[in-house]
Specification:
- Helices cover 42% and strands 8% of the residues.
- The chain is mostly helical.
- It has a three-stranded antiparallel β-sheet with strand order 2-1-3, covered by helices on one side.
- A hairpin with a 5-residue loop joins strand 1 and strand 2.
Length: 141
């Protein structure tokens, strides 16, 4: 928690731990004037930076979708863009190997995509564990 010295324009020119003849004003560490003096960005900039990071992820997903649907080819992009995409994808994939897998994507595909015109869902459970205990409570449920 600093004691501050200001110039004639009111701008902080030095911070001190202890008060001196020139530094009688005390400011909390997170005061905007102290942040400006030490070069810290305001919290709003941090929030905006987080939003930018989230938006980059959306753009990556859109690019992946366009490539998957053959709207564009990865080679249509400049080599610098290709390298950045490959680097980020590699990093995301390596982080995903340590993440919790809540379902088997192949099994989910088999269950969620079936021919509606046939009227019946697929008979296979393709990797899903199905447990039927034949248990019913006293109310017949």
């Amino acid at each position: 928690m600093p004691f501050v010295a200001r110039n004639v324009h009111g701008v902080i020119v030095s911070l001190h731990r202890e008060p001196t003849a020139d530094t009688q004003e005390f400011l909390p560490d997170d005061h905007p004037d102290v942040d400006a003096f030490v070069g810290r960005r305001p919290v709003a900039d941090d929030r905006f930076r987080a939003l930018d990071a989230d938006f980059v992820r959306v753009l990556e997903d859109v690019i992946d979708l366009l490539i998957d649907r053959n709207v564009i080819r990865i080679t249509d992009l400049p080599s610098e863009a290709q390298q950045k995409l490959f680097s980020r994808k590699s990093f995301r994939d390596s982080r995903g190997k340590n993440s919790l897998k809540l379902f088997d994507p192949v099994a989910l595909e088999a269950v969620t995509h079936f021919d509606v015109s046939a009227g019946n869902p697929p008979s296979t459970t393709a990797g899903l564990d199905v447990i039927d205990t034949d248990f019913h409570d006293d109310l017949g449920r």
